[in-house]
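#structure-requests
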Amino acid sequence: MAICVICVQSSDAVVLRVSVVNFYFLQWSHLLKILSTYVKGNDDVMKISEMNWMQVEAYLQHDDRAVVPLGSTEQHAYLSLSVDSILAERISVEAAEPLGVPVFPVVAYGIAPYFRAYPGSISLSVETYVALIRDLLDSLRHGGFRRIVLVSGHGGNEPAGALATEWMADYPEMQVKFYQWWQGPQMSAAAKSFDPVGSHASWFENFPWTRLPGVEMPDEQKILADRSGYPRQVGDRLRQLLGDGNFAGRYQRSDEEMLAIWQAALVETRALIAEGWD
């Protein structure tokens, strides 16, 4: 967990810093909620993989929320093939810990047919993926959960959000949020404050926990031609276009910057789990 130094800027706002990095402003009420999560410690850590069914049943006596991370197994240039799964699960666990909300194991496979030419990449069909998400939601409902957050780390998982909306129409007592953790406004603002050019498999996904030991990153900025208005490249054509798999941007930025970005995303994800329920 990053250590934050709080500097008061005015009577109604503060700015959080990770080391000396200033990345966004928060209202006092929001800040107090954030601080309370650190004071609580790790006593409320609840990962389904570390619980038995009786503990889950006891939890459901006082709460009905659950978090399900959605990842993917696909090429990320010099980074792990499991980047999307690693990030979705980690942000879910760290965000849910202080709230005492259980986090299910990450769904490690998503929709990524465009990366078929890269060995190690796996893609489910849209039909299979939507059926999988439906079965997961059905099981959670049957088990007693009523408020569910699907935290996605892969853009191709968007059909899960559409399915969740359709599914809720069939089960009015259920509430489901689909959230792409890397698209939050505070996280996006923090990232753009360091570098406006970042995309798939670039510095934007290069955290200390997504790197591979002994793998060196190119020290350059990758620039690709603008293909706006053209059909999306897939398979061999995409590999010919991308080469190593980085869509655009530098391959790595400082850990200090990346931790600042992560902290912004963490606050947003935690707020989504904690608030905004009917």
